[in-house]
């Protein structure tokens, strides 16, 4: 049976995906690198370094320059999240977290971000989370399953007892590669490989998810 939920952060619990995008766009503009909101879709859930390498493309930079650009983007991002508050939790999140707690289901964070702890503290949900897997936890980024396997292990659960909630294609791939249940939030073009696809967590209840997951087991 399902014993744990592992939530991605950016684009799932809060809309920081937008702030990540704006910070990369600012950096790309400064460097004269082609980048757009469209191109950014490929960067959902992708680590800081992999994102930069994608934006840089064929342009040659030294390791020191790459490092400086990653630091610069992060400064822009950190600046933009200063005023995040519980009001920035996406619709449906608090209800679902409450219902899961009520049902005795453990909660973990599974985010590629090194800013994940700061963000959940600002969102006021740090005390609801039993384990954190973030940008410091494992080496191999999503779509490798390592981050989610680490999260499940922290919860003391098997992959098959765990549900991952993700908005990124790389995140769904990671969950499936880890042998977990996957709930994808967003268009099927992005998260269609998930077991359950929903537009967002708004109006989503544990009882409905539980019923759908049970159907899949049979
Ligand atoms: C993921 C975001 O959660 O974390 C990505 O979806 C981001 O957009 C990645 O690049 C790494 O985040 P950070 O805060 O460590 O640069
Ligand atoms: Mg995400």
From TrEMBL:
Domain of life: Bacteria
Family label: Belongs to the HAD-like hydrolase superfamily. CbbY/CbbZ/Gph/YieH family.
First-to-last residue of the parent protein present: 757 to 974 of 978
Coiled-coil stretches noted in the UniProt entry, renumbered to this chain: none
Residue numbers marked as site, Important for catalytic activity and assists the phosphoryl transfer reaction to Asp8 by balancing charge and orienting the reacting groups: 111, 142
Active site: 8 (nucleophile), 10 (proton donor/acceptor)
Binding site for Mg(2+): 8, 10, 166-167
Residues at which substrate binds: 8-10, 24, 43-48, 51, 73, 111-115, 142
Organism of derivation: Fischerella thermalis JSC-11
Name listed for the protein in its UniProt record: Beta-phosphoglucomutase
